[in-house]
TrEMBL record:
It comes from Malus baccata (Siberian crab apple). One of its GO terms (biological process) is fructose 6-phosphate metabolic process. Substrate binds at T218, I219, D220, M263, G264, R265, E319, Y373, M374, I375, R376. Belongs to the phosphofructokinase type A (PFKA) family. PPi-dependent PFK group II subfamily. Atypical ATP-dependent clade 'X' sub-subfamily. Residues 95-397 form the Phosphofructokinase domain. This is ATP-dependent 6-phosphofructokinase. It catalyses: beta-D-fructose 6-phosphate + ATP = beta-D-fructose 1,6-bisphosphate + ADP + H(+). Pathway: Carbohydrate degradation; glycolysis; D-glyceraldehyde 3-phosphate and glycerone phosphate from D-glucose: step 3/4.
Length: 488
C-alpha cells in the first residue's frame, strides 16, 4: 500500500479500487515517539470484552451499497481503542472547548470526555476553555473532574459557554504551549471544525506533541460524511411539540392555518424529519427546494385546496427556505461571517393572510409558531445521550492512539476518524431527488413546486456528482434512529 507525503491528505490505495482517506498521526511529524500498552487491558470493566481492541487496519466504507464490479471506494479509519497508546496517563493534559451555536448534547459530550479520560485512561488533568476559541487566551480555564461534570448532561447548553466570531490561531497555540496542553477536544459545527483544522496545522508546523480532535455538532445536521450530527434527533423531537400545537390550533378554527418556522439555515433536515415524524403537516418548505406562491401549482393554490378539502392546513418552513422570494436583500453577517437570514416565517405568514383576505376574500385563522431556540436549548434525549458517549469515547481512543487532525462520527453506523477537510469542504443538504424527499412529498401530498424538466436536469447533475465520488444520493438518511443506534 502506497502512502503519499504527510502534508497532503493521507490517501492510501489498495486493490480493487480501495481508497483509505486516512487521518494524520503524531508520528507523521514527530518520528520515534515511544508507545505504551493501553491501560484499558487492566481495566476490570473492559477486560471482559472479547477482542476489545480495534485492529489498526480496520476501516469503514463510505459507500455500502455496491455492485459486483464496483470499486471498493473510499474508506475511513475505524475508531476505537488501540493496543498501543502514545501518551502515559500522567502525561496527558487535555482541554475541551465548545464553539458556535448551542446544541443538545454538548454537556453530555463534555461529561463523557472527562469521565472517559479519567475512568478508562486514568487522566486527571482536564481543563474547560471558557467561551469558545477566544477563551484560550481571553478567559480563565475551568478544571474539570468527574465530580464537577457528574450531572451536567441533564442541562441544556454548555457549561463552558460558547461564542461565534474571530479568533487568533497563533495566540491559541501559544496558550496551548504555555499551559502544556497536549490533547484538545473541539466541539462545534462546520466553522468550528474549520477552526480546529487551522489549529492542527499550526500545531503541526510547530512540531508539538498535541492532538486536535473534533466532535462535530449542529442541530441542522449539515455536516457531511457522518450519518447525523448529535443534537439533531433531540431537535426533531422537540419540534414535534410546536407542530402539534400548530395542528391543534389549525383544527380548532374554520380555515385554520398552523404555521411553524424551524431552524435550518442552509439545510432543511429538521423541517423534513419533523414533518415526516408528525404526519400532521400538509406542506414542508426547505431551502433546497425552491417554491413559488402565485398561480397554478403555487403555494396559495395548494393552501386553498387543502382548506376546502380538509378545513385546515399545517405548514412547516425551515428558516432558510424561500429567502430568494423576500424582496429586500440583506447582506448582514453574524460575528463568524455566516449570512444573516431574513425572517421568512413572519414574511410568508403575513403574505398568506393578505392573499386570502384581500385577493380571495376568505376569512382564515393563521397561527404562527416560531419555537426558534427552544428546539436547541434543551438537554439531549436518551438516544442522543448514548450517541454522545460513543462520540466522546471515539475521540478519546483516537487521541490516546496518537491520531490527530480528525473529526469523529458514524459512517454507515460504524464510528470512524475522518480528516477535517472531509467534514468542512461542503455542507450536507437535503437531496430533493432522493427517496426521502419523495417520501415526504407523498406523505404531505404537497406539490413539488418543480417542473419536470428541472427535476430531470437536477437528477443528472446529482448522478454526475455521485459518480465523481461525492456520494450525493442517499445522504438524506440520518440512519441512526432510536431503533438502530450506531455501533462503535
Ligand atoms: N473558515 C474558518 N476558519 C477558521 N475558523 C473558523 C472558520 N469559520 C468559523 N471559524 C471559527 O469557528 C467558530 C464557530 O463558527 P460558527 O459561528 O460559524 O459556528 P459553527 O461551528 O459553524 O456552528 P453552527 O453550526 O452553530 O453555526 C468561530 O469562533 C470562528 O472563529
Ligand atoms: O442565533 P445564533 O446563535 O447565531 O444561531 C442561529 C443558527 O444556529 C443554528 O442553530 C445552527 O447551530 C442554525 O439553525 C441557526 O440559524
Ligand atoms: Mg455553521
Amino acid at each position: 500500500m502506497a502512502i503519499s507525503n504527510n502534508r497532503e491528505p493521507k490517501i492510501a490505495t489498495g486493490p480493487c479500487g480501495y481508497v483509505l482517506e486516512d487521518v494524520p498521526h503524531l508520528v507523521d511529524y514527530i518520528p520515534d515517539l515511544p508507545t505504551y500498552p493501553n491501560p484499558l487491558q487492566d481495566n476490570p470493566s473492559y477486560s471482559v470484552v472479547k477482542q476489545y481492541f480495534v485492529n489498526v487496519d480496520d476501516t469503514v466504507a463510505q459507500k455500502i451499497v455496491v455492485h459486483k464490479d464496483s470499486p471498493r471506494g473510499t474508506h475511513f479509519r475505524r475508531s476505537g481503542p488501540r493496543q498501543k497508546v502514545y501518551f502515559e496517563s500522567n502525561e496527558v493534559h487535555a482541554c475541551i472547548v465548545t464553539c458556535g451555536g448551542l446544541c443538545p448534547g454538548l454537556n453530555t459530550v463534555i461529561r463523557e470526555i472527562v469521565c472517559g479520560l479519567n475512568h478508562m485512561y486514568g487522566v486527571k488533568r482536564i481543563l474547560g476553555i471558557e467561551g469558545g476559541y477566544r477563551g484560550f487566551y481571553a478567559r480563565n480555564t475551568i478544571p474539570l473532574t468527574p465530580k464537577v461534570v457528574n450531572d451536567i448532561h441533564k442541562r441544556g447548553g454548555t457549561i463552558l459557554r460558547t461564542s461565534r466570531g474571530r479568533h487568533d490561531t497563533s495566540k491559541i497555540v501559544d496558550s496551548i504551549q504555555d499551559r502544556g496542553i497536549n490533547q484538545i477536544y473541539v466541539l462545534g459545527g462546520d466553522g468550528t471544525q474549520k477552526g480546529a483544522s487551522v489549529i492542527f496545522e499550526e500545531v503541526r508546523r510547530r512540531g508539538l506533541k498535541v492532538v486536535v480532535a473534533g466532535i462535530p455538532n449542529t442541530i441542522d445536521n449539515d455536516i457531511p460524511v457522518i450519518d447525523r450530527s448529535f443534537g439533531f434527533d433531540t431537535a426533531v423531537e422537540e419540534a414535534q411539540r410546536a407542530i402539534n400545537a400548530a395542528h391543534v390550533e389549525a383544527e380548532g378554527f374554520e380555515n385554520g392555518i398552523g404555521f411553524v418556522k424551524l431552524m435550518g439555515r442552509y439545510s432543511g433536515f429538521i423541517a423534513m424529519y419533523a414533518t415526516l415524524a408528525s404526519r400532521d403537516v400538509d406542506c414542508c418548505l426547505i431551502p433546497e427546494s425552491p417554491f413559488y406562491l402565485e398561480g397554478p401549482g403555487g403555494l396559495y393554490e395548494y393552501i386553498e385546496r387543502r382548506l376546502k378539502e380538509n378545513g385546515h392546513v399545517v405548514i412547516v418552513i425551515a428558516e432558510g427556505a424561500g429567502q430568494e422570494l423576500l424582496s429586500e436583500g440583506m447582506n448582514q453577517q453574524d460575528a463568524s461571517g455566516n449570512k444573516l437570514l431574513q425572517d421568512v416565517g413572519l414574511w410568508l405568514s403575513q403574505n398568506i393572510k393578505d392573499h386570502f383576505s384581500k385577493q380571495r376574500k376568505m376569512t382564515i385563522n393563521l397561527k404562527y409558531i416560531d419555537p426558534t431556540y427552544m428546539i436547541r436549548a434543551i438537554p439531549s434525549n436518551a438516544s442522543d445521550n448514548v450517541y454522545c458517549t460513543l462520540l466522546a469515547h471515539s475521540a478519546i481512543h483516537g487521541a490516546m492512539a496518537g491520531y490527530t487532525g480528525f473529526a469523529v462520527g458514524p459512517v454507515n453506523g460504524r464510528h470512524a476518524y475522518i480528516p477535517f477537510h472531509r467534514v468542512t469542504e461542503r455542507l450536507n443538504r437535503v437531496v430533493i431527488t432522493d427517496r426521502m424527499w419523495a417520501r415526504l412529498l407523498s406523505s404531505t401530498n404537497q406539490p413539488s413546486f418543480w417542473d419536470l424538466n428541472k427535476v430531470e436536469a437536477k437528477k443528472k447533475e446529482e448522478t454526475k456528482e455521485e459518480t465523481e465520488g461525492q456520494l450525493i444520493v442517499g445522504e438524506n438518511h440520518t440512519e441512526a434512529t432510536s431503533a438502530s443506534r450506531p455501533k462503535e
